[in-house]
Amino acid sequence: MEALEDTLRRLREAFREGRTRPAEFRAAQLRGLGRFLQDHKQRLQEALAQDLHKSAFESLVSEVAISQGEVDLALRSLRTWMKDEPVARNLVRGQEGWGGCLRPLGGLHGPSPRLPLQATQMDSAFIRKEPFGLVLIVAPWNYPVNLTLVPLVGALAAGNCVVLKPSEISRSTEKILAEELPRYLDQSCFAVVLGGPSEMGQLLEHRFDYIFFTGSPHVGKIVMAAAAKHLTPITLELGGKNPCYVDDNCDPQTVANRVAWFRYFNTGQTCVAPDYVLCSPEMQERLLPALQSAITRFYGDDPKSSPNLGRIISHKHFQRLQGLLRCGRVAIGGQSDESERYIAPTVLVDVQAAEPVMQEEIFGPILPLLTVRSLDEAIDFINQREKPLALYAFSNSSQVVRQVLARTSSGGFCGNDGFMHMTLASLPFGGVGNSGMGRYHGKFSFDTFSHQRACLLRSPGMEKINHIRYPPYTPGKLRLLLLAMDERCCSCTLL
Ligand code: NAD
Hints:
Aldehyde Dehydrogenase, Chain A, domain 1, 16% strand, binds nicotinamide-adenine-dinucleotide
């Protein structure tokens, strides 16, 4: 096996040679990624079933189809995204030609003299989206296809060389990504590196031009500290506790259906799942039978035998969740079977804010209901904690939903539903504060993996005009320059 240093050297060389820059090359990589998803759809579904007991429905919808959709969008939009973005130039005047004169507005600097300025129609000012170079993408285990390949789409579209580090915990999926994916991509520009924390430690000693990390806030801090040594820019897609406020003015069954679906989807192992519900004691009484009804309809009387409910990824996570089941009082579910890493869809009530289930991200099929006396109390509760990745508010009153939106902060927000906001590639997906920094999906991915280079191309002639910026400085030159700057909000290419 090639040593890590050699792999990184090989990829760096390919980038330096400019191999990944042409649009055709990028499109070929994206098409390769699309073919990989098509050819291995079945194997990926089987791997996801082995890793997480994920149903074929959830695998297709939340892993394969989403990744394929991002590939298709990038292929359709690539040339538009890559285009230089023209920006406003200073001192532009329609009629004035090269070397013309401007009459700046009066104002602060007194009456306007005729100002001999170079008209900038001949200049070209634009933002060039250029690839960073060698990027590292690190993925978690809970959506091991989606969270590995969707960032990869952005990195390839933006023309980077990529080292991909899938999670070692979702082993079956990791194996397909390592063995098959490289066959579909140019191996001089792309590599999969395997391993857990110790291999990641070695990887992070190297210098990358960009790091895109999805995982826990704890490891996010390790990645950020390592990136800081090389001043490497990063995106951190992290987790946390996502609140879900349920107003009294709601249909409890509709709320219960939506909340139960997105809490127990992927067995609760979803970074944007609602972590806890805040509602009045009266709404809690109405929600409990509605949640029981939704769970029974979704997973049957014996959820353990349902093909639609997954399993906990590992024994370590199973044990952690067993500890959380001891918080508050079990109102629904609570059963578990360690031999299968099974935990029933569970609802807890009478939970105290100081208990572990409210202190850490749950990341499992457990939903605590906490009671509050008012909307204000719910908002205070939310704002006293770390900024979440997602925040949900349910109410028939749009005013209530808008109040929650206006008075809180989170990576994303969805009124009257679950994580549907993240299914729109037209919305940026990412956290804020403790839930991360940066964003991706759709064009946001392309922009994340592109350096926005500020470019101004000027004429080599017309040197005379520049004399007003050169020493010896005089009050007259200063006045002219200040006038020019005043004219266009301080942007002045004479300086
Ligand atoms: P994790 O942070 O434990 O692991 C993520 C990646 O980091 C893995 O590839 C792993 O190999 C590596 N890693 C683990 N420990 C490390 C260490 N000590 N040093 C260096 N690298 C290390 O996260 P996880 O358990 O795989 O995933 C669950 C977490 O990810 C949850 O907090 C969840 O909310 C979050 N998450 C966030 C998003 C998002 O889009 N914001 C999506 C999915 C999961």
